[in-house]
Amino acid sequence: MNISELLKRNKKILLVLKENNIRINDVRMLDIKSDYDAMVCNGAKRSYIISQLARKYKCCERTIYSTIRKLSKKVKYEY
After folding, report:
1. pLDDT in tens, 44-57
2. How far is CA 5 from the centre of its chain?
3. Dist. CA 38–CA 53, nearest whole Å
4. What confidence tier does 79 reach under pLDDT thresholds 50, 70, 90?
5. What percent of the chain has pLDDT over 70?
6. Distance between CA atoms of 60 and 6, rounded to whole angstroms?
7. Helix, strand or coil for residue 78?
8. pLDDT-based confidence at residue 27 (cuts at 50, 70, 90)
9. DSSP character at residue 27
10. In this predicted structure, what is the pLDDT of residue 44?
11. What are the φ/ψ torsions at residue 10 (nearest 5 degrees)?
12. pLDDT at 77
């Protein structure tokens, strides 16, 4: 398979990603969101979750807040 074939096969999903400003590198943030959701389900407070995730992923708390906000947005798409 070459690049043009890959793009043709995934055209619709790629257009949705583009329309919603989702970058390919955002896939790296999925673990942060999963950990956040699990901690919320366990009843942890938001500020505690953010500080723990910042420590675990070696980034600032602002990055965690931004990541959670971005990955929690509703996706806009048209068929």
Report:
1. 999 999 999 999 99
2. 26
3. 12
4. low
5. 99
6. 36
7. coil
8. very high
9. G
10. 97
11. -115, 20
12. 83
Amino acid identity at 57: Y
Would you give the end-to-end CA distance of the chain in angstroms?
26
Distance (Å, whole) CA 43 – CA 8: 44
Between CA 79 and CA 77 the distance in angstroms is: 7
> What type of residue sits at position 4?
S
Are 20 and 74 contacting, i.e. CB atoms less than 8 angstroms apart?
Answer: no
pLDDT of residue 40: 97
| Residue 65: how many other CB atoms lie within 10 Å | 14
30, 38 Cβ separation under 8 angstroms: no
pLDDT of the residue at 78: 74
Query: Do residues 29 and 57 touch, judged by C-beta distance below 8 A?
Result: no
DSSP output for 3-25? HHHHHHHTHHHHHHHHHTT--GG
The amino acid occupying position 33 is: K
